[in-house]
Design brief:
single chain, 423 residues, alpha/beta, four-stranded mixed beta sheet, 20 strands, binds guanosine-5'-diphosphate, binds 6-O-phosphoryl inosine monophosphate, binds magnesium ion
């Protein structure tokens, strides 16, 4: 029986998961999303084209692979429909390739409005949510009030209206003016429901396990990153799902013993969108250079991403929580013109140096302690094999590998599918 390999982000999301899932897909029969929803924005670039996927797995462009949206995902039919239309315009038709778990939960129009109402009420303490309704939808799932994809095949109106009325009562409590927005969005949403019904709605946990028995290979595609995990991220500035390897078990219905390789993906530096602590954040020219060189603007919201040095303390914690077996370093090219490169190797907390990841990442008390490496000062974007790497770059790789105790097997030197180097 085969195992499921998992690819997931080790930082605050946007590490380049979409690109690498696309690169790895030819080796697999099945690609499956297991958590998150349209808060994700996964970018793929190939043959001069660029696609951003929010709900649909990033294996969709590699021939007739099976792509599964697992039970752990939350889906907004209106966004799903937009994505299908975007793919159709690009000449890609996926009705036969995409399956959706009947147990995945639906993001209702009122979930989005609740997200907005809650964020508004938080004022300065807001999470910086993507406002896609993720938090309220997972809240209803856990509190046993949610509406699932499988409900579309039964008394859908009844279930939908019951939950909608619950939400309206809350929105009224928050004095949130919902009427016009709701009416407009509901139209799109119900039209999305009709589109979703044309796809195979399945018991995906059964399908995935059956395929493993048949010897098929499965790649699970994470969304967000470990530092945004509901349990292990910088709570409360996190998303509302388990983004870590264990999330693939609950989000697809596979046993822990069925997990194979764990590909941990990180940028050669760090970014974060939304609020919350970020110890190695930069507010200077170096941070701006990362933003400019790396085009660090959100794929889902367009917001400028906060940038900073690589944080090895946080990364080591992520490697531990996920049981990472192979590392993938992204966006190395963004640092091509840096004279020096810094990486946080410990933190000073209230004057005391610690190398473990602390309970509270409150940026006021944490001062990163950096190790400095020489920059490679060469254009890496046209390199095609590891023997072309500059000595300083190899030095940086060795240093990161040694700190984390896991090999870096893939290096990415540009956004295109082709700009990927195996080691
Ligand atoms: P994801 O959410 O993890 O899939 O990542 P995003 O797509 O949100 O953000 C990654 C961004 O970096 C996208 O714009 C990619 O096209 C781009 N990208 C991916 N790998 C590289 C790389 O190695 N170098 C550069 N310069 N850009 C990259
Ligand atoms: P991908 O899969 C980066 C962040 C938001 C916010 C917090 C909570 O593209 O890496 P939510 O909408 O989930 O309630 O927002 O999490 N966030 C992401 N940041 N990449 C993502 O996904 C993200 N998904 C959510 O900015 O700080
Ligand atoms: Mg993204």
């Amino acid at each position: 029986m085969n195992k499921v390999d998992v690819l997931l982000g080790l930082q605050w999301g946007d590490e380049g998961k979409g690109k690498i899932v696309d690169v790895l897909t030819p080796k697999y029969n099945v690609v499956a999303r297991f958590q998150g929803g349209p808060n994700a924005g996964h970018t793929l670039v190939f043959e001069g084209k660029k696609f951003v996927l929010h709900t649909i797995p990033s294996g969709i462009f590699q021939g007739d692979k099976v792509n599964i949206i697992g039970n752990g995902v939350v889906l907004d039919p209106a966004i799903f429909k937009e994505e299908i239309e975007m793919l159709k315009e690009g000449g890609i038709s996926i009705e036969d390739q995409l399956c959706i778990s009947k147990k995945a939960h639906l993001i209702l129009p009122t979930h989005r409005l609740l997200d907005a109402a809650y964020e508004k009420a938080k004022g300065k303490a807001k999470i910086g949510s993507t406002l896609k309704g993720i938090g309220p939808t997972y809240t209803d799932k856990i509190s046993r009030n949610g509406v699932r994809v499988g409900d579309m095949l039964g008394d859908f109106e009844g279930k939908y209206n019951k939950l909608k009325q619950r939400h309206i009562a809350i929105l009224e409590q928050y004095a949130y003016d919902y009427k016009a927005e709701l009416e407009a969005y509901e139209k799109e949403w119900f039209s999305g429901v009709e589109v979703m019904k044309q796809f195979q709605l399945i018991d995906s946990e059964q399908a995935v396990n059956d395929m493993l028995v048949e010897g098929k290979s499965v790649l699970a595609e994470g969304a967000q990153g470990t530092m945004l995990d509901i349990d292990f991220g910088s709570y409360p500035f996190v998303t509302s799902s388990n983004t870590v390897t264990a999330g693939a078990c609950t989000g697809l219905g596979i046993a822990p013993s069925r997990i194979g390789e764990v590909f941990g993906i990180f940028k050669a530096y760090c970014t974060r969108v939304g609020s919350g602590p970020f110890p190695s954040e930069l507010f200077d020219d170096a941070g701006q250079a990362m933003r400019d060189n790396g085009n660090e603007y959100g794929s889902t919201t367009g917001r400028p991403r906060r940038c900073g040095w690589l944080d090895l303390v946080a990364l080591k914690y992520s490697v531990m929580i996920n049981g990472v077996t192979q590392l993938i370093m992204m966006k190395s090219d963004v640092m091509d013109d840096f004279d020096e490169i810094h990486a946080a190797t410990s933190y000073k907390i209230n004057g005391e140096e610690v190398s473990h990841f602390p309970y509270d990442l409150d940026e006021n008390d944490i001062e990163p302690v950096y190790t400095t490496k020489k920059g490679w000062k060469k254009d890496m974007t046209k390199m095609t094999s590891a023997d072309q790497f500059p000595a300083e770059f190899n030095d940086y790789l060795d240093f990161v590998e040694e700190y984390l105790g896991v090999p870096i097997k893939v290096v990415s030197v540009g956004p295109d599918r082709a700009q990927t180097i195996l080691r």
